[in-house]
Amino acid sequence: MKRDIKLEELRSQIRENQFTSPTAGYAPGYTQANLVILPKDLAYDFLLFCQRNQKSCPLIEVLDSGSPIPKVTAPNADLRYDLPKYRIYKNGKLVDEVSDIEDYWQDDFVSFLIGCSFTFENPLIESGLTIRHIEENRNVPMYVTNIPCHEAGVFHGNTVVSMRPFSPNNVIRAVEVTSRFPAVHGSPIHIGNPEEIGIQNINKPEFGDAVTVKDNEVPVFWACGVTPQAVAISSKPEIMITHAPGHMFITDVKESSYSIL
Hints:
- By secondary structure, the protein is an alpha+beta fold.
- 20% of the residues lie in helices and 25% in strands.
- The protein is built from 6 helices and 11 strands.
- It has helices at 7-15, 40-52, 121-126, 132-135, 168-178, 227-235, and strands at 30-39, 59-62, 86-90, 93-98, 109-115, 142-148, 158-166, 190-191, 218-223, 240-243, 249-254.
- The strands form 2 sheets. Strands 1, 2, 3, 4, 5, 10 and 11 form a 7-stranded antiparallel beta sheet that branches. The protein has a 4-stranded antiparallel beta sheet with strand order 6-7-9-8.
- A hairpin with a 2-residue loop joins strand 3 (86-90) and strand 4 (93-98).
- The mean pLDDT is 96.
């Protein structure tokens, strides 16, 4: 499938289960989002968790209780069907990966859309940088770090990061571009030696796929919206529904809306 497919057609193919791949590079120009869905009695704790961990969990929309319709960011979409893949966590365990969540939906669910770093990849490309996981047609590599999140209510765990390698000359440019987008994770939280943040083997990400890091390149790490999935494993809520890592919700909102410059 061509990555420049129009958003309406892409969303239609996702809803009809014709597109089940990672969404990096697709619908360029539009904001992508991570998804977390929880019962209402856990929603305040998670809202507080996001407020205390804004680098990992920058909220772009919180839906009304029981509603799957993101009225602010995509009023014609339905979060039960419009992501390529979902994950179901129960009591800290991944129990299912599905193409829609109709069978799991509850009337008390509250949905959270969290900014995704795929949003700033198009600006990075436009600035002349190459995104390795797009180049190699792989999912972005994501790692659980030793960086603890700020706890909130029942929620606790460590930060997850996504990684993109760049030559030393391009690292500063990557920082400059991504710093313009704090609503989708913004600037990196670590540059260089992965062991300093608890990553022992950069070729074995906990989520996504390994990509080539060339001898002359520096790994650059951004806070990642998969953090709530690591938190689900640590905190063991009765149920948490998320996107499958890399399989994002694509909103109607242009990426430029979240640029601060």
